[in-house]
Design brief:
This protein has helices spanning about 5-40, 55-85, 90-120, 125-130, 130-165, 170-190, 200-220. With about 220 residues, it is mainly α.
Length: about 220
């Protein structure tokens, strides 16, 4: 009985930890997306007028990205822990690999954006905006996020939804919603400016389900 006690408590805490981490990631990413969309024009070839007025909001968004990344890693870790022996090696590789690639590209885009703001704050704003370097950095950050990072987010959603279907970690309808949203990211994300918000919204949905399911199980045990 003494040996089973800690194990049982760990199994009960893991889904809640996954849900809380997923909710934290979702709220942080939605906040980041909102700050960036209201501060930076969607057109990657814009002249850079936002550097004169909106750098504080953009800097805040960029500083929140590491915290969102930590929450996402925590969400992945405890979700894999919940799967345990049910985890298939093939889907585990795609699931984990796509998640890491998404985070790497997210951080890379944030680093490029942070570098632009740092140079602009040094008093060389006019020279920066008129330079080829600014146009390259702006376009590079846009392509990293809206082409590569979003595509990896779509792959992550497909692999996670497949795992959900085969292991019953969450409701099947959440997996089917994940498939549909992932196809949107993979096919038309480049033409839809709000597509970046799809991943955090879906993670929020699955996290809420896991949290409610965990609370329901605890009530039955009590």
């Amino acid at each position: 009985m003494l040996e089973n006690g800690p194990l049982t408590r760990a199994q009960l805490k893991t889904p809640k930890a996954a849900a809380i981490a997923g909710i934290a990631f979702s709220l942080l990413m939605i906040t980041i997306f909102w700050l960036l969309r209201r501060s930076i024009p969607a057109d990657p070839l814009e002249p850079g007028a936002w550097l004169a007025t909106n750098t504080k909001a953009v800097a805040l968004a960029l500083n929140l990205i590491p915290f969102a990344g930590v929450a996402f890693l925590w969400f992945i870790g405890v979700l894999r822990d919940r799967l345990g022996q049910q985890e298939d090696r093939f889907f585990a590789t795609v699931f984990f690999g796509s998640a890491l690639l998404f985070l790497a590209m997210l951080f890379a885009a944030a680093a490029v954006g942070g570098a632009v703001i740092l140079v602009a704050s040094s008093g060389e704003q006019i020279e920066l905006v008129n330079s080829t370097t600014f146009r390259f950095a702006r376009a590079a950050a846009y392509i990293i996020m809206n082409v590569y990072a979003i595509k990896m987010a779509g792959v992550f959603m497909i692999s996670t939804s497949t795992v959900v279907v085969y292991t019953a970690t969450a409701a099947r309808w959440i997996a089917f919603v994940g498939y549909v949203l992932a196809l949107i990211l993979l096919i038309v994300s480049y033409y839809i400016s709000w597509s970046f918000a799809v991943l955090p919204i879906w993670v929020f949905l699955i996290s809420i389900y896991i949290l409610m399911d965990n609370l329901g199980r605890q009530e039955k045990i009590d």
